[in-house]
Backbone:
């Protein structure tokens, strides 16, 4: 997946990340549990704050949230048929 337009679409970078998943049947239908790990750093982007009136104010042009130690894991749980 990559962003359309701009520099990101012109030069997409692909990453392979590890993950595992299991599938099984339940009385509600098929179920799945997937766990993935992304070792890549989080991308930088613009940081905005919402004012009480609902306006967006740019705080930083290039902000990168630090990854917490041990983070980078994603767990997805689903029951039923995918759309």
Residues:
């Amino acid at each position: 997946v990559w962003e359309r337009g701009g520099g990101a679409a012109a030069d997409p970078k692909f990453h392979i990340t590890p993950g595992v998943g299991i599938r099984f049947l339940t009385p509600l239908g098929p179920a799945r549990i997937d766990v993935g790990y992304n070792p890549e750093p989080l991308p930088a982007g613009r940081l905005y704050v919402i004012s009480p009136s609902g306006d967006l104010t740019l705080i930083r042009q290039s902000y990168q949230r630090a990854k917490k130690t041990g983070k980078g894991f994603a767990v997805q749980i689903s029951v039923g048929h995918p759309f």
About this structure: The chain is about 5% helix and 45% strand. The mean pLDDT is 81. The beta strands are 19-26, 29-37, 45-50, 56-63, 73-79.
